[in-house]
Protein backbone atom coordinates (compact mmCIF):
# COMPACT_ATOMS: atom_id res chain seq x y z
CA UNK A 1 0.00 0.00 0.00
CA UNK A 2 1.53 3.31 -1.14
CA UNK A 3 2.15 5.88 1.62
CA UNK A 4 1.79 9.44 0.36
CA UNK A 5 2.61 12.59 2.32
CA UNK A 6 0.52 15.65 1.41
CA UNK A 7 1.86 19.03 2.45
CA UNK A 8 -1.05 21.41 3.02
CA UNK A 9 -4.47 20.93 4.57
CA UNK A 10 -6.57 23.20 2.38
CA UNK A 11 -8.80 22.54 -0.64
CA UNK A 12 -6.27 20.73 -2.84
CA UNK A 13 -4.70 18.75 0.00
CA UNK A 14 -7.98 17.60 1.56
CA UNK A 15 -9.48 16.68 -1.81
CA UNK A 16 -6.36 14.72 -2.73
CA UNK A 17 -6.42 12.92 0.63
CA UNK A 18 -10.05 11.90 0.06
CA UNK A 19 -9.47 10.48 -3.40
CA UNK A 20 -6.21 8.75 -2.53
CA UNK A 21 -7.99 6.97 0.31
CA UNK A 22 -10.78 5.94 -2.07
CA UNK A 23 -8.19 4.28 -4.31
CA UNK A 24 -6.53 2.39 -1.47
CA UNK A 25 -3.53 4.64 -0.79
CA UNK A 26 -2.45 5.65 2.70
CA UNK A 27 -2.37 9.47 2.86
CA UNK A 28 -0.82 11.61 5.56
CA UNK A 29 -1.52 15.36 5.64
CA UNK A 30 1.00 17.68 7.29
CA UNK A 31 -0.23 21.19 8.00
CA UNK A 32 1.79 24.01 9.55
CA UNK A 33 -1.24 25.46 11.35
CA UNK A 34 -2.48 23.86 14.59
CA UNK A 35 -5.69 22.85 12.80
CA UNK A 36 -7.18 23.04 9.33
CA UNK A 37 -7.56 26.73 8.51
CA UNK A 38 -11.26 27.48 8.19
CA UNK A 39 -11.25 31.24 7.61
CA UNK A 40 -11.13 33.04 4.32
CA UNK A 41 -13.27 34.65 1.69
CA UNK A 42 -15.89 33.86 -0.95
CA UNK A 43 -14.83 31.33 -3.56
CA UNK A 44 -16.50 29.89 -6.65
CA UNK A 45 -16.97 26.30 -7.80
CA UNK A 46 -17.75 25.96 -11.49
CA UNK A 47 -17.88 23.54 -14.41
CA UNK A 48 -15.69 20.48 -14.05
CA UNK A 49 -15.12 21.20 -10.35
CA UNK A 50 -18.84 20.76 -9.70
CA UNK A 51 -18.54 17.32 -11.26
CA UNK A 52 -15.71 16.46 -8.86
CA UNK A 53 -17.71 17.66 -5.85
CA UNK A 54 -20.66 15.63 -7.06
CA UNK A 55 -18.52 12.49 -7.35
CA UNK A 56 -17.47 13.05 -3.74
CA UNK A 57 -21.15 13.05 -2.73
CA UNK A 58 -20.82 16.58 -1.38
CA UNK A 59 -22.74 18.70 -3.87
CA UNK A 60 -25.93 19.01 -1.81
CA UNK A 61 -23.92 19.95 1.27
CA UNK A 62 -21.94 22.54 -0.69
CA UNK A 63 -25.13 24.06 -2.08
CA UNK A 64 -26.61 24.27 1.42
CA UNK A 65 -23.66 26.48 2.35
CA UNK A 66 -24.00 28.80 -0.65
CA UNK A 67 -23.42 32.44 0.21
CA UNK A 68 -26.76 33.28 -1.44
CA UNK A 69 -25.42 36.71 -2.38
CA UNK A 70 -28.03 38.93 -4.04
CA UNK A 71 -26.53 42.16 -5.28
CA UNK A 72 -23.36 44.20 -5.73
CA UNK A 73 -23.63 47.94 -5.18
CA UNK A 74 -21.06 50.48 -6.34
CA UNK A 75 -20.75 53.68 -4.32
CA UNK A 76 -18.86 56.95 -4.64
CA UNK A 77 -16.69 58.66 -2.03
CA UNK A 78 -19.80 59.90 -0.19
CA UNK A 79 -21.37 56.49 -0.12
CA UNK A 80 -23.97 57.31 -2.77
CA UNK A 81 -24.99 54.42 -4.99
CA UNK A 82 -23.83 54.93 -8.58
CA UNK A 83 -24.51 51.47 -10.07
CA UNK A 84 -25.67 47.95 -9.22
CA UNK A 85 -25.21 44.44 -10.58
CA UNK A 86 -26.71 41.10 -9.70
CA UNK A 87 -24.40 39.01 -7.56
CA UNK A 88 -24.23 36.38 -10.31
CA UNK A 89 -23.15 38.87 -12.96
CA UNK A 90 -20.66 40.49 -10.60
CA UNK A 91 -19.06 37.11 -9.87
CA UNK A 92 -19.24 35.87 -13.45
CA UNK A 93 -21.48 32.99 -12.36
CA UNK A 94 -24.23 31.30 -14.31
CA UNK A 95 -26.29 28.12 -14.21
CA UNK A 96 -25.19 25.66 -11.53
CA UNK A 97 -22.13 27.63 -10.37
CA UNK A 98 -21.81 27.81 -6.58
CA UNK A 99 -20.28 30.52 -4.40
CA UNK A 100 -19.29 29.40 -0.91
CA UNK A 101 -17.10 30.71 1.89
CA UNK A 102 -13.71 29.05 1.85
CA UNK A 103 -14.03 28.05 5.52
CA UNK A 104 -17.31 26.23 4.87
CA UNK A 105 -15.80 24.30 1.96
CA UNK A 106 -12.74 23.33 4.00
CA UNK A 107 -14.92 21.99 6.82
CA UNK A 108 -16.94 19.93 4.33
CA UNK A 109 -13.80 18.53 2.71
CA UNK A 110 -12.19 17.72 6.05
CA UNK A 111 -15.22 15.66 7.06
CA UNK A 112 -14.96 13.78 3.75
CA UNK A 113 -11.24 13.11 4.28
CA UNK A 114 -11.39 11.87 7.85
CA UNK A 115 -11.42 8.06 7.85
CA UNK A 116 -8.10 6.48 6.98
CA UNK A 117 -6.23 9.79 6.73
CA UNK A 118 -3.47 10.70 9.20
CA UNK A 119 -3.12 14.39 10.10
CA UNK A 120 0.02 16.01 11.49
CA UNK A 121 -0.72 19.57 12.63
CA UNK A 122 1.67 22.24 13.80
CA UNK A 123 4.55 20.95 11.69
CA UNK A 124 6.10 21.43 8.26
CA UNK A 125 8.60 19.78 5.94
CA UNK A 126 12.18 20.97 6.42
CA UNK A 127 13.98 18.76 3.90
CA UNK A 128 13.30 16.14 1.23
CA UNK A 129 15.81 13.41 0.37
CA UNK A 130 14.73 11.30 -2.60
CA UNK A 131 16.02 7.78 -3.02
CA UNK A 132 15.04 4.99 -5.45
CA UNK A 133 12.92 3.48 -2.68
CA UNK A 134 11.13 6.58 -1.38
CA UNK A 135 11.39 10.09 0.03
CA UNK A 136 12.98 10.62 3.44
CA UNK A 137 11.23 13.62 4.94
CA UNK A 138 12.77 15.74 7.67
CA UNK A 139 10.17 17.73 9.60
CA UNK A 140 10.69 20.99 11.45
CA UNK A 141 9.72 19.41 14.78
CA UNK A 142 8.61 15.80 14.33
CA UNK A 143 10.90 12.78 13.76
CA UNK A 144 12.01 11.97 10.20
CA UNK A 145 9.82 9.58 8.20
CA UNK A 146 10.00 7.90 4.82
CA UNK A 147 7.12 8.00 2.32
CA UNK A 148 6.68 6.46 -1.10
CA UNK A 149 5.56 9.80 -2.61
CA UNK A 150 5.17 13.45 -1.58
CA UNK A 151 2.55 15.87 -2.90
CA UNK A 152 2.89 19.61 -2.46
CA UNK A 153 -0.57 21.10 -1.99
CA UNK A 154 0.71 24.05 -0.02
CA UNK A 155 -0.31 27.05 -2.07
CA UNK A 156 1.26 29.95 -3.93
CA UNK A 157 4.32 30.07 -1.67
CA UNK A 158 4.72 26.29 -1.66
CA UNK A 159 7.34 24.94 0.70
CA UNK A 160 7.54 21.63 -1.19
CA UNK A 161 8.04 23.44 -4.50
CA UNK A 162 10.93 25.38 -3.02
CA UNK A 163 12.59 22.25 -1.64
CA UNK A 164 12.11 20.06 -4.71
CA UNK A 165 12.08 22.47 -7.67
CA UNK A 166 13.98 25.59 -6.65
CA UNK A 167 13.50 29.26 -5.84
CA UNK A 168 9.99 30.72 -5.91
CA UNK A 169 11.10 33.55 -8.21
CA UNK A 170 11.57 31.01 -11.03
CA UNK A 171 7.89 30.08 -11.08
CA UNK A 172 5.75 32.84 -9.52
CA UNK A 173 4.75 35.68 -11.83
CA UNK A 174 3.52 38.87 -10.20
CA UNK A 175 0.56 40.40 -12.07
CA UNK A 176 1.28 43.87 -10.73
CA UNK A 177 -1.41 44.03 -8.08
CA UNK A 178 -1.97 43.15 -4.44
CA UNK A 179 -5.01 41.94 -2.54
CA UNK A 180 -5.99 42.08 1.13
CA UNK A 181 -9.02 40.51 2.82
CA UNK A 182 -9.98 40.37 6.49
CA UNK A 183 -12.97 40.13 8.82
CA UNK A 184 -14.60 43.34 10.06
CA UNK A 185 -17.74 44.11 12.08
CA UNK A 186 -20.79 44.33 9.81
CA UNK A 187 -21.47 47.96 10.74
CA UNK A 188 -23.42 48.52 7.50
CA UNK A 189 -25.76 45.60 8.23
CA UNK A 190 -25.03 44.03 4.86
CA UNK A 191 -27.29 41.07 4.08
CA UNK A 192 -26.05 39.04 1.09
CA UNK A 193 -24.82 42.30 -0.37
CA UNK A 194 -21.45 43.42 -1.70
CA UNK A 195 -20.39 47.08 -1.62
CA UNK A 196 -17.59 48.33 -3.87
CA UNK A 197 -15.90 51.72 -4.00
CA UNK A 198 -13.54 52.06 -6.98
CA UNK A 199 -10.84 54.72 -7.22
CA UNK A 200 -7.98 55.12 -9.71
CA UNK A 201 -5.54 52.25 -9.20
CA UNK A 202 -7.34 50.84 -6.19
CA UNK A 203 -10.68 49.40 -5.14
CA UNK A 204 -12.15 48.83 -1.68
CA UNK A 205 -15.12 46.67 -0.82
CA UNK A 206 -17.10 44.99 1.91
CA UNK A 207 -19.58 42.14 1.84
CA UNK A 208 -21.81 40.19 4.19
CA UNK A 209 -23.20 36.73 3.46
CA UNK A 210 -26.34 35.13 4.83
CA UNK A 211 -24.48 33.00 7.37
CA UNK A 212 -21.93 35.35 8.94
CA UNK A 213 -22.64 37.91 11.65
CA UNK A 214 -19.46 39.72 10.62
CA UNK A 215 -18.45 40.97 7.18
CA UNK A 216 -15.32 40.83 5.04
CA UNK A 217 -13.34 43.85 3.86
CA UNK A 218 -11.48 43.51 0.56
CA UNK A 219 -8.83 45.78 -0.95
CA UNK A 220 -7.30 45.53 -4.43
CA UNK A 221 -4.61 47.88 -5.69
CA UNK A 222 -1.85 48.34 -8.22
CA UNK A 223 1.38 47.39 -6.51
CA UNK A 224 3.49 50.43 -5.57
CA UNK A 225 7.28 50.25 -6.00
CA UNK A 226 8.86 48.06 -3.36
CA UNK A 227 5.58 46.50 -2.23
CA UNK A 228 6.96 42.98 -2.44
CA UNK A 229 5.18 40.13 -0.68
CA UNK A 230 7.15 39.87 2.54
CA UNK A 231 5.69 38.05 5.54
CA UNK A 232 5.91 41.03 7.93
CA UNK A 233 2.23 41.55 8.79
CA UNK A 234 2.77 44.89 10.49
CA UNK A 235 4.54 46.20 7.40
CA UNK A 236 1.74 44.88 5.20
CA UNK A 237 -0.90 46.69 7.25
CA UNK A 238 1.07 49.92 7.16
CA UNK A 239 1.42 49.65 3.39
CA UNK A 240 -2.33 49.06 2.97
CA UNK A 241 -3.09 52.07 5.15
CA UNK A 242 -0.72 54.23 3.09
CA UNK A 243 -2.12 53.10 -0.27
CA UNK A 244 -5.73 53.78 0.75
CA UNK A 245 -5.08 56.94 2.78
CA UNK A 246 -7.56 59.65 1.84
CA UNK A 247 -10.02 57.34 0.06
CA UNK A 248 -13.65 58.07 0.86
CA UNK A 249 -16.73 56.02 1.64
CA UNK A 250 -16.17 53.73 4.69
CA UNK A 251 -12.52 53.02 3.86
CA UNK A 252 -11.13 54.78 6.99
CA UNK A 253 -13.39 52.68 9.21
CA UNK A 254 -12.40 49.45 7.47
CA UNK A 255 -8.72 50.32 7.80
CA UNK A 256 -9.28 51.04 11.48
CA UNK A 257 -10.74 47.55 11.95
CA UNK A 258 -7.77 46.07 10.10
CA UNK A 259 -5.38 46.43 13.02
CA UNK A 260 -7.33 43.99 15.21
CA UNK A 261 -8.56 41.66 12.45
CA UNK A 262 -8.01 37.99 13.46
CA UNK A 263 -7.53 36.75 9.90
CA UNK A 264 -5.64 39.45 8.01
CA UNK A 265 -4.62 38.24 4.55
CA UNK A 266 -2.30 40.16 2.24
CA UNK A 267 -0.44 38.98 -0.85
CA UNK A 268 0.53 39.77 -4.39
CA UNK A 269 -1.85 38.71 -7.14
CA UNK A 270 0.39 36.20 -8.86
CA UNK A 271 0.33 33.10 -11.03
CA UNK A 272 2.46 29.97 -10.90
CA UNK A 273 3.87 28.88 -14.25
CA UNK A 274 5.90 25.67 -14.44
CA UNK A 275 7.09 23.46 -17.31
CA UNK A 276 6.52 20.33 -15.22
CA UNK A 277 4.76 19.60 -11.94
CA UNK A 278 6.70 16.57 -10.79
CA UNK A 279 10.27 15.57 -10.15
CA UNK A 280 11.11 12.05 -9.13
CA UNK A 281 8.71 11.03 -6.37
CA UNK A 282 7.43 14.55 -5.67
CA UNK A 283 4.49 16.24 -7.40
CA UNK A 284 2.61 19.52 -6.99
CA UNK A 285 -1.14 20.16 -7.13
CA UNK A 286 -3.39 23.21 -6.94
CA UNK A 287 -1.92 26.68 -6.47
CA UNK A 288 1.53 25.20 -5.79
CA UNK A 289 1.66 23.92 -9.38
CA UNK A 290 -0.60 26.18 -11.46
CA UNK A 291 -2.10 28.86 -9.23
CA UNK A 292 -4.16 31.09 -11.56
CA UNK A 293 -4.37 33.97 -9.04
CA UNK A 294 -7.50 35.35 -7.33
CA UNK A 295 -8.11 37.46 -10.44
CA UNK A 296 -9.08 34.32 -12.37
CA UNK A 297 -11.78 33.27 -9.93
CA UNK A 298 -10.76 29.67 -10.68
CA UNK A 299 -8.18 28.75 -8.05
CA UNK A 300 -10.58 26.60 -6.04
CA UNK A 301 -11.93 24.82 -9.11
CA UNK A 302 -8.40 24.06 -10.33
CA UNK A 303 -7.50 22.68 -6.90
CA UNK A 304 -10.54 20.39 -6.80
CA UNK A 305 -10.07 19.09 -10.33
CA UNK A 306 -6.29 18.78 -10.07
CA UNK A 307 -6.48 16.72 -6.89
CA UNK A 308 -9.06 14.41 -8.45
CA UNK A 309 -7.00 13.90 -11.60
CA UNK A 310 -3.72 13.35 -9.73
CA UNK A 311 -5.22 10.71 -7.45
CA UNK A 312 -6.97 9.00 -10.37
CA UNK A 313 -3.86 8.92 -12.54
CA UNK A 314 -1.77 7.45 -9.73
CA UNK A 315 -4.39 4.78 -9.14
CA UNK A 316 -4.69 3.96 -12.83
CA UNK A 317 -0.89 3.68 -13.09
CA UNK A 318 -0.95 0.73 -10.67
CA UNK A 319 2.14 1.66 -8.70
CA UNK A 320 4.12 3.33 -11.48
CA UNK A 321 4.31 6.84 -10.05
CA UNK A 322 6.28 8.19 -13.02
CA UNK A 323 3.54 7.11 -15.41
CA UNK A 324 0.88 8.45 -13.06
CA UNK A 325 2.55 11.86 -12.77
CA UNK A 326 3.01 12.07 -16.54
CA UNK A 327 -0.67 11.25 -17.17
CA UNK A 328 -1.71 13.85 -14.59
CA UNK A 329 0.25 16.56 -16.39
CA UNK A 330 -1.13 15.56 -19.79
CA UNK A 331 -4.70 15.67 -18.58
CA UNK A 332 -4.42 18.88 -16.54
CA UNK A 333 -2.10 21.09 -18.62
CA UNK A 334 -4.66 22.53 -21.06
CA UNK A 335 -7.26 23.03 -18.32
CA UNK A 336 -4.78 24.88 -16.11
CA UNK A 337 -3.56 27.13 -18.91
CA UNK A 338 -7.08 28.04 -20.08
CA UNK A 339 -8.05 29.09 -16.57
CA UNK A 340 -4.87 31.08 -16.05
CA UNK A 341 -5.72 33.12 -19.17
CA UNK A 342 -8.77 34.55 -17.38
CA UNK A 343 -6.72 36.55 -14.91
CA UNK A 344 -5.40 39.30 -17.20
CA UNK A 345 -8.80 40.23 -18.64
CA UNK A 346 -10.52 40.05 -15.24
CA UNK A 347 -7.86 42.19 -13.60
CA UNK A 348 -8.55 45.03 -16.02
CA UNK A 349 -12.10 45.29 -14.75
CA UNK A 350 -11.24 44.89 -11.08
CA UNK A 351 -8.83 47.82 -10.71
CA UNK A 352 -9.33 50.75 -13.09
CA UNK A 353 -6.50 53.13 -13.82
CA UNK A 354 -8.29 56.49 -14.08
CA UNK A 355 -11.34 58.42 -12.93
CA UNK A 356 -12.50 58.58 -16.55
CA UNK A 357 -12.51 54.80 -16.87
CA UNK A 358 -14.39 54.48 -13.59
CA UNK A 359 -17.08 56.93 -14.71
CA UNK A 360 -17.45 55.09 -18.02
CA UNK A 361 -17.75 51.69 -16.31
CA UNK A 362 -20.37 52.98 -13.87
CA UNK A 363 -22.32 54.52 -16.75
CA UNK A 364 -22.29 51.24 -18.67
CA UNK A 365 -23.49 49.35 -15.60
CA UNK A 366 -26.40 51.76 -15.18
CA UNK A 367 -27.33 51.52 -18.85
CA UNK A 368 -26.87 47.78 -19.30
CA UNK A 369 -30.36 46.68 -18.14
CA UNK A 370 -31.89 48.96 -20.78
CA UNK A 371 -29.64 48.13 -23.74
CA UNK A 372 -30.84 45.73 -26.46
CA UNK A 373 -27.48 43.93 -26.50
CA UNK A 374 -27.24 43.37 -22.75
CA UNK A 375 -27.22 39.56 -23.09
CA UNK A 376 -24.22 39.74 -25.44
CA UNK A 377 -22.42 42.03 -22.98
CA UNK A 378 -22.98 39.57 -20.15
CA UNK A 379 -21.85 36.70 -22.39
CA UNK A 380 -18.55 38.49 -22.99
CA UNK A 381 -17.94 38.22 -19.25
CA UNK A 382 -19.38 34.81 -18.45
CA UNK A 383 -18.55 33.03 -21.71
CA UNK A 384 -14.75 32.86 -21.28
CA UNK A 385 -15.17 31.75 -17.66
CA UNK A 386 -17.62 29.00 -18.61
CA UNK A 387 -15.41 27.74 -21.42
CA UNK A 388 -12.33 27.66 -19.20
CA UNK A 389 -14.22 25.99 -16.35
CA UNK A 390 -15.33 23.16 -18.66
CA UNK A 391 -12.07 22.77 -20.62
CA UNK A 392 -11.51 19.26 -19.29
CA UNK A 393 -13.56 16.08 -19.32
CA UNK A 394 -13.86 14.50 -15.89
CA UNK A 395 -13.46 10.80 -16.45
CA UNK A 396 -13.66 7.68 -14.36
CA UNK A 397 -10.34 6.14 -13.37
CA UNK A 398 -10.49 2.39 -13.66
CA UNK A 399 -7.92 0.82 -11.39
CA UNK A 400 -6.24 -2.22 -12.98
CA UNK A 401 -6.99 -5.43 -11.15
CA UNK A 402 -4.12 -7.11 -9.35
UniProtKB/TrEMBL annotation:
Pfam family of the protein (one): FAD_binding_3
Residue intervals of the FAD-binding domain: 2-339
Coiled-coil portions: none
One GO MF term: FAD binding
UniProt cross-references to InterPro entries, sorted A to Z: FAD-bd, FAD/NAD-bd_sf, FAD_aromatic-hydroxylase
Highest taxon, organism lineage: Bacteria
Name this polypeptide is given: FAD-dependent oxidoreductase
Species per Swiss-Prot/TrEMBL record: Microbispora cellulosiformans
Amino acid sequence: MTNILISGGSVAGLTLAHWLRQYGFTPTVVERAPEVREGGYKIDIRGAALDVVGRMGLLDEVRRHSTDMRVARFVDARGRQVATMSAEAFGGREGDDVEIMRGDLVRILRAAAEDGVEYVFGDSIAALDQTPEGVRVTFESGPPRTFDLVAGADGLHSNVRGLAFGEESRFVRDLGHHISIFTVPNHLGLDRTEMMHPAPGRSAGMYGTRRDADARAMFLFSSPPGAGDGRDVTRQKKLLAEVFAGQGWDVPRLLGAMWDAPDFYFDSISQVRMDHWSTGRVALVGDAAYGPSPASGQGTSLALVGAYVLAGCLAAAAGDHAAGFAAYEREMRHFAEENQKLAAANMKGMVLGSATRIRFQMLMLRLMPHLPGKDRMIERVTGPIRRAATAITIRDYRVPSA
